[in-house]
Write a structure and sequence with these properties.
Growth Hormone, Chain: A, 2 domains
């Protein structure tokens, strides 16, 4: 582990700073949208813009990597993300913010792809699992810490936008000044969406509904919390709870899913999440402490859905097909992530802030019901006992190559 960190510390340090800025700006945009008086629909469009850019970047950025290389593209994307966040304080209208968020989504998507390509290039068959674990821990820890930075200044002021810009710019230094060589660019095969559905209908809908749910949680969570009247400190605590408890529950739920029918675990957590949302609705009128406790339990159930859906899909794949299938999985998740903020904003426009949890109740329940239906149509795979690996939700196909259950990377 020490030797792994010695070779990759600059990459992880720079990536941690990027996650810090990313965590802050996501919450900041949501809070500021409410403070500026943007409608729920307009705010949903802004958040959907980010996920549209993220999905676009996953297709567009690899083309530039082949032309000019990882280092130049990384520098360009970090600079673009740094500039984009500052533009929010210049153009204070939702339509401008929509296009700015598209730029931010493209930039951060490319940064994730580049970071994961670099880490994959630095890994061996023996260290891939360790690197993936470190990568996931850094992602969740620094995204969570970024939420707390919201308390450093009044969101109405320009200070926090400047801080995000500084963080994104600073992240360039350890990576560009390190002696790390840029990785070779290779083509990643992919499944079509039709092939993906044929392999695993539940995996397909798991990807779609996970995108629908998690984009609402992370993209619209701060909007909901602000609309409910929570203070800036309470909003940041709400988002930290969602990020941190969702990460901590990945391992015990993964352990359970490797020892019983994984579909039952996926169905169980989705129905539990749906039920907890009902309790959260009631608790928001009773006690803030109870509201936070129930939110923590909800996060423990909801966030592992992503890794569970991937593991279930992998149950029906050969090792050499997993990376290719992950590209289709991420596209479906991306489509769900674009639709999620739009749908939850419509629900909140119709029923007020409580529409946030009404939306989540519906999304989780529908996935659980589809899972029950699929159990009647397919038997449990014979070799599914060790497919679960905790994964960050923004991982790219390049990052999936770090997954130790995939076909080993050929070493030169």
């Amino acid at each position: 582990m020490v030797s792994v960190l010695r070779n990759t510390w600059a990459l992880f340090f720079g990536f941690g700073i990027i996650c810090l800025g990313h965590g802050l700006q996501g919450t900041l945009i949501g809070v500021r949208s409410v403070l500026e008086g943007f409608s729920y629909i307009s705010t949903g469009l802004i958040i959907a813009g980010f996920y549209s850019g993220f999905l676009t970047g996953s297709t567009l950025i690899p083309v530039f990597l082949k032309r000019v290389g990882h280092i130049r593209v990384f520098a360009a994307l970090a600079s673009l993300a740094s500039i984009a966040i500052l533009l929010h304080s210049v153009f204070l209208d939702p339509y401008s913010w929509f296009f700015i968020r598209i730029l931010t989504g493209i930039s951060l998507s490319g940064i994730y792809i580049i970071m994961e390509s670099w880490l994959n290039d630095k890994s061996t068959n023996e260290t891939r699992g360790q690197l993936l674990s470190i990568y996931m821990i850094i992602t969740f820890v620094f995204l969570g810490l970024g939420q707390l930075l919201l308390n450093l200044s009044d969101p109405v002021k320009v200070d926090l936008f400047i801080l995000v810009s500084v963080l994104l710019s600073f992240a360039l230094l350890p990576i560009l000044l390190s002696t790390t060589e840029q990785p070779n660019t290779s083509d990643t095969k992919s499944f079509s969406l039709t092939e993906f559905y044929a392999v695993s209908p539940l995996g397909f809908f798991g990807a779609l509904f996970t995108g629908l749910a998690h984009s609402a949680i992370f993209g619209y969570g701060a909007v909901y919390a602000t609309a409910k009247g929570l203070s800036i400190l309470e909003v940041s605590i709400f988002m930290v709870i969602i990020t941190s408890f969702g990460a901590l529950s990945q391992w015990p739920i993964g352990y359970l899913s490797d020892r019983m029918d994984r579909r039952l675990v996926l169905i169980g957590v989705t129905f539990a999440a749906s039920g907890l949302c009902i309790l959260i609705l009631a608790s928001s009128y009773i006690s803030l402490t109870l509201f936070f406790i129930l939110t923590a339990f909800y996060s423990c159930m909801s966030l592992p859905m992503y890794s569970l859906a991937i593991a279930h899909t992998n149950d029906f794949l050969q090792q050499n097909e997993i990376v290719a299938a992950s590209s289709a999985f991420l596209k479906v998740t991306g489509i769900g992530s674009i639709l999620g903020p739009l749908l939850v904003s419509g629900m909140m426009s119709f029923s007020g802030p409580n529409g946030f949890h009404l939306y989540l109740i519906l999304i989780h329940a529908l996935l659980g019901l589809f899972g029950l239906y699929r159990i009647t149509k397919r038997a449990v795979p014979a070799d599914s006992e060790s497919q679960y690996v905790p994964l960050p939700r923004n991982i790219s196909p390049a990052g999936m190559e770090l997954n130790p259950i995939t076909e080993p990377v050929e070493e030169e």
